[in-house]
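Per-residue structure
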Amino acid sequence: MNQRPLKILFVTSEVYPLIKTGGLADVSSGLPLALKALGHDVRIIIPAYKSALENAGTTKVRLKNIANSGFRLLEGALPNSKVPVWFLDAPELYYRNGGPYGAPNGTDWPDNAERFNEFCKVASQIAMDDLNLNWQPDVVHCNDWQSGLVPVYLSEEKKRPATIITIHNIAYAGFFSQQTFDRLSLNPEWWSYDKLEFHDQFSFLKGALVYSDFVNTVSPTYAKQILTPEYGYGMEGLLEHRKDKLIGILNGIDEQHWNPETDELIAKNYNFETLKDKAENKRAVLEHFKLPQDLDKPLIGVIGRMVEQKGFDLIREILPSLMESNTQVVMLGSGDKQLEASLLQCMESYPDRIAIDIGYNETLAHLIEAGSDIFLMPSRFEPCGLNQFYSLKYGTVPVVNNTGGLADSVVDTYAETLTNQTATGFKLYEATSEALLSAVNRALYSYHSPLEWSNIIRNGMRQDFSWLNSAQHYLALYHETIKSQGSQERDKSV
């Protein structure tokens, strides 16, 4: 039986390519685009940041004065798509130089609580069609703390839409003081340990965890991990209480942007039937980094934020040992200045074997994924991750820590998985340099067995990590949420 198309309001603080600081932006474009392709009416709302408006191109005024606030609602679309984007235009709150959450010097905007409280209020008004847009969603899909008060506001409404909050990283929960709570004129009843209050502060995200109909994370393993003190950041008790409404859905990737068959940013296109052409990309990587053109040596690639969370300290510790195994290593990223300096110092000791670009370059990122043989991703925690998907898609074998989305997307290589043709990479099971070196050495051993290595590569390239696949899981969650919310409304009326 075909289910009717859903109306979905997607509430987010960033969306690629309009504004991006991390993986949330990729989800906020990839998932709505897939939902639209499946025939659903999805609309995105974000704040009208200066850079987002510049990247959006043409917009039109949809509402001139929202609830006499002086704010406007502008309407545009995701570039090259028919997915509508509504921009909350409040120049004093959002039209600034800098990022969506902080100033150019890296400090948080001091009025972030006000900025995102107003955003949540307007999103809630749209969800109830209080602004007379003649459109009301069936489900409101919120993302991270910046939209966390939307389910809180909607909890006071009758005949409201169903609500979902997606946790992309629970480490960021939107904590503010009681003075800020009072300044925002929030309902005093919300200042309670079983609502928004959290150890004499209040949390936007906690509000969403309490009031949303369903809570989801960006991988099944991360959904389990945040139930523990190690990963729950103090919210594990609340999440345990709500675990029957907690689910993990693995992110997808933009297969138009990340596809070795069509990627215009790499040296030569290829697929799993023309893997020999992958070598031209390896040659191009070595040429870019001015490393010796020895295509027989295994090339290890690393891309990411150079911080301990991503395991870059572990990578630094094993580099001297890797140099004994006749490998070459290329890195792209930035982060902790001490880690950067230590890695660069190691590069100076092995100038023909290690090359590092500090910063980020989209073209180079694609080339490293296409040209490397092995990709390192030993994150201490990783709610989902993206580069392991790219690596699998590009036939670059990932070595990952068995955590979060890395655990869910990479199948370790050992006798059984080689036999049943499910092996796609190599895992370490504790975040130590010894475990990382052991996993890399296992990968290098397989690399020197061409048939085994080719099978691992092909297993990975055959995986389906498209957003269309993930969107089907989200649609099932939406329907379950609507059904659940409907039952609650009926219970209240009895």
